[in-house]
Amino acid sequence: HVQLVESGGGSVEAGGSLTLSCVASGFDYNSYCMGWFRQVPGEDREGIAAIGSDGNTIYPSSMKGRFTISKDNTKNTVYLQMNSLKTEDTAMYYCRYGREYDDGSWTWNYWGQGTQVTVS
Hints:
Elements: E1 3-7, E2 10-12, E3 18-25, E4 32-39, E5 46-51, E6 57-58, E7 67-72, E8 77-82, E9 91-100, E10 106-111, E11 115-119
């Protein structure tokens, strides 16, 4: 059973940077994807970035430029580097894990517990 543990959240001043980490264990799939989402209370979860098994990355257009996803397969860890943070980036940030299929499609199956980021 997959477990995802996020860390690195905290409070930061606007314009600052944070790096979030997500350590995964108990992999279900040989080919998998991982990603970062965030949620503000009362709103839907929003995708930030995702990375596939071969390191290919996907960002929504609204997230390009300030957020960078990367991973270290030796540590089973995915990172989210966040720069030039704004007050509107305040949210709970979640790690996700999913399956990557042979046709390149992805399905998301597991969530982490989240780590809070507060920008003031």
